[in-house]
Amino acid sequence: MARRKQPTARQTRLGSELRKLREAAGLKGLEAAALLGTDSAQISQIEFGTAGVSEERVRRLAAQYSCTDAELIEALVVMATDRPQGWWEEYRGLLPTSFLDLAELEYHSSYRLDVEFLHVPGLFQTEDYARAIFAYRVPELPDNDLELRVRHRMKRKVIIEEPACIPYEAVIHEAALRIRVGHRAATRAQLDRVLEFSEAPHITVRVIPFSLDGFAGATSAMMYVGGAVPRLDTAVRDAPHGAGFIGSEAQLGAFRTLFRKVEAVSLDPERSRDFIHKLSKEL
Questions:
Q1: How far is 70 from 59, CA to CA, in rounded Å?
Q2: pLDDT value for 6
Q3: Rounded to an integer, what distance in angstroms lies between the CA atom of residue 174 and that of residue 187?
Q4: DSSP letters for the chain
Q5: How far are the Cα atoms of 143, 175, 207, 209, 215 from residue 185, in angstroms, in the given order?
Q6: pLDDT, tens digit, for every residue of 98-119?
């Protein structure tokens, strides 16, 4: 199998999970290689995501690593063998790879949790709102690159739109709802779009109002994407050169706890809708 020059985040995650299983079994790369009748360089490439791995090898390695989690094994087999040419592939070579990795991560997700304090979540954004955000970038993007980003963001909505939709929970601070990223009419249209999505049965929107006492979690913005099994969940954080993907069990546990803390102090969905409706009418 040819060596990959630039593995996707999904391919890298598969290799990382196989490495974790090997290390949990107390085996070195050379010992794992002997189990497959190959060399340690091949194991290293698999674990870094630069080389593919077949279903047979995934199952053989899992067995040799004494992994008894059948659901995890099946999920890893799917990661190794399911290679859809998704809609994001049309942007390969046109947008940074992190944009494509995020779209692929979402495509395979089982649910999604977002917490936002300064911007409306990307999955809710209108074209005008997204365009205003990308246009504010320094240095400025060429018009064609800006429009590519806007189109890509609009296509990502497929995961929360019928018929292919996943459960989605978003907690949004009042600041994000009040900041006029675009002009007044665009801001009102954006609030109306959030209200529209909040009526969907698979979407839950909650608001954290300015009036909440004792709230110190304004640095807790996060995106959390559910995997096929909890161990394959992923937290996503913005980084200077693209999205950062986090998959360690300890950090994932911290992110889940953080979301529940923020969720617990926010307004319930019905009061949140009333709150957003009132803000829209004030514009």
A1: 10
A2: 86
A3: 13
A4: -PPPSS--HHHHHHHHHHHHHHHHTT--HHHHHHHHTS-HHHHHHHHHTSS---HHHHHHHHHHTT---HHHHHHHHHHHH-----GGGGGBTTB-HHHHHHHHHHHT-SEEEEEESSS--GGG--HHHHHHHHHT-SSPPPHHHHHHHHHHHHHGGGGGSSSS---EEEEEEHHHHHS-SS-HHHHHHHHHHHHHHHTSTTEEEEEE-TT-TT---TT--EEEEE-SSGGG-EEEEEETTEEEEE--HHHHHHHHHHHHHHHHHSPPHHHHHHHHHHHHHH-
A5: 23, 18, 21, 22, 30
A6: 999 999 999 999 999 999 999 9
Q: Which residue stretches of the chain have pLDDT < 70? A: 1-2, 239-242
The pLDDT, as a whole number, for residue 224 is 98
pLDDT of residue 180: 95
The residue whose two tokens read 């794992």 is: 32
Q: Which residues, 6 or more positions from 67, have their beta carbon under 8 angstroms from its beta carbon?
A: 21, 25, 73
The predicted model scores a pTM of 0.93
